[in-house]
Write a structure and sequence with these properties.
Layout: H1 2-32, E1 36-42, H2 47-61, E2 65-69, H3 74-81, E3 88-91, H4 97-105, E4 114-129, E5 137-139, H5 140-147, H6 160-163, E6 173-177, H7 182-191, E7 202-204, H8 207-215, E8 220-225, H9 226-230, E9 236-238, E10 240-242, E11 247-248, E12 265-273, H10 274-279, H11 281-290, H12 296-299, H13 310-321
């Protein structure tokens, strides 16, 4: 009888040992999977790229992590990022000195507490209606002048025939993103050289609205990032811009800081709160995914951006690996 009891106890001990061991393995596996949220807001131009990266990350890498991507605009995004409401802030222009000063007021230093990550290159694209058969090619000077207040009329009611006499005597309907967007700031500061924009320009928050406005008005013209044009080529046509050596179409082959479309090319960024990356493993992991071979380097071209050289992303990866 005693022998039987000993056998049963040994068997139960082995069973418990096995069960305990198996449970630890499950816990270990579970602990390797990341959970939690990553919060991103900012540029509407960068949104298609960042949303695509987030989708791939959540479906292919870490299904337990929720990456929430907003598109309030570059400036609006920094207003959330600076007081610590978001982990990343996307921007279609570099952070401004006044925004860096506001970060300092929050105790955050650039390059120590905030890392700037250049994601890809975008080409500012002038889009017109499909039925517009006269302005498919314009010089850079014509485009800049037509958007500057007072260049043609004091009231800025400019006709297409004011640009070239053989074009229609119809009012140009100017459109673009509003002041929340880095694209507006890039256009105003870099392209118009901070000269006032025509008072008749209608500036919108949503890029989809701009697409519809131009698609439904033969006399309209608008500016925004190449990606939005590429995804709406069935509704719009892009103006080929002559920078002095003949008309150049914005394409992934011409957009680049040293390529034919360089004058209208700009980098796009995301900014990472390093302190949040240290506190939240999922934030650091997603940052590493952005600069990995599966992130912006692979997905930029699929969303209308020109990717950067592989060594640029590798340098960011090394910088992120040093965070602990």
């Amino acid at each position: 009888m005693l022998k039987k009891i000993i056998i049963v106890l040994v068997a139960m001990s082995l069973l418990f040992a096995y069960t305990g061991c198996s449970g630890n393995e499950d816990s270990e596996v579970a602990s390797d999977a990341l959970e939690g949220t990553v919060t991103i807001d900012g540029s509407g131009t960068v949104y298609p790229l960042m949303a695509y990266i987030a989708e791939e990350y959540m479906t292919q890498e870490e299904p337990g992590v929720s990456v929430q991507v907003g598109r309030a605009g570059s400036s609006a995004g920094f207003k959330k990022f600076i007081p610590g409401e978001t982990d990343f802030s996307d921007a279609s222009r570099k952070i401004k000195d006044k925004e860096v000063a506001l970060l300092k007021e929050q105790g955050l230093e650039m390059d120590r507490d905030v890392i700037e990550i250049k994601l890809a290159l975008d080409g500012l694209t002038m889009v017109i209606n499909k039925e517009n058969d006269w302005a498919s090619e314009m010089s850079a000077e014509e485009i800049i002048s037509m958007f500057i207040s007072g260049s043609y009329k004091a009231d800025d009611v400019v006709l297409w025939s004011d640009i070239r006499p053989d074009w229609p005597s119809e009012e140009i309907k100017f459109y673009g993103p509003n002041e929340n967007h880095g694209t507006y700031e890039f256009f105003y500061e870099k392209i118009l050289d901070e000269q006032p924009m025509v008072k008749t320009a209608s500036l919108q928050q949503e890029y989809s609205t701009l697409v519809d406005l131009v698609a439904n008005d033969q006399y309209a013209i608008a500016y925004f990032g190449y990606g939005y044009y590429e995804s709406n080529q069935d509704k719009l046509q892009a103006v080929h811009v002559d920078f002095g050596a003949g008309p150049v179409a914005p394409t992934l082959e011409t957009i680049g800081e040293d390529l034919e479309y360089a004058q209208f090319t700009r980098p796009v960024f995301t900014y990472l709160n390093v302190n949040y990356a240290k506190e939240k493993p999922q934030v650091l992991d997603f940052a590493k995914y952005i600069v990995s071979a599966e992130g912006a380097q692979k997905l930029a071209g699929e969303t209308g951006f020109a990717p950067l050289p592989a060594e640029t992303y590798a340098a960011y990866a090394a910088q992120l690996d040093a965070i602990n």
